[in-house]
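My convention is simple: the sequence line spells out the residues, with the fold written below as integer tokens. I include a record here:
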Amino acid sequence: MPQSLSNMMTPVLALVVWTLVVLVWLYVRRIPAMRKAGIDPAKMKGSESYASLPPINPKAVWVADNYNHLHEQPTIFYALCLYSHLVGVTDMINVWLAWAYVGIRVVHSFIQITTNFVPVRFLVFNIGSLLLVLLALRNVLALFGIYFP
């Protein structure tokens, strides 16, 4: 594996880049949907006016929801990767757990943005959660000197 891919911080960069890709996807989907619904952003006053807006294409809402979700649970991922990097718990198992988490978040995004089939999305979310638990557990074990690199 190339050195840069085996670095604990490279999956962090990958998820940041993916989040920015979803941001672009959001604009590509949301702006035309708002135009089609006749929504004038200059007349919006914030979330209190959402209820009075005409309905917007659900797919435009799904991508916005996913963008928001990429700022929720992944904050735990970012903290765990930074912690792992700073204390040196950066063996290949942790690196692969980090890459697996990035992969699962990308899969989660595609599910939510394209079909939004909640049972599958929920399963994928739980797999991502399990990966975070494993990453945290390995760091806690290392903290107490129980570490199997």
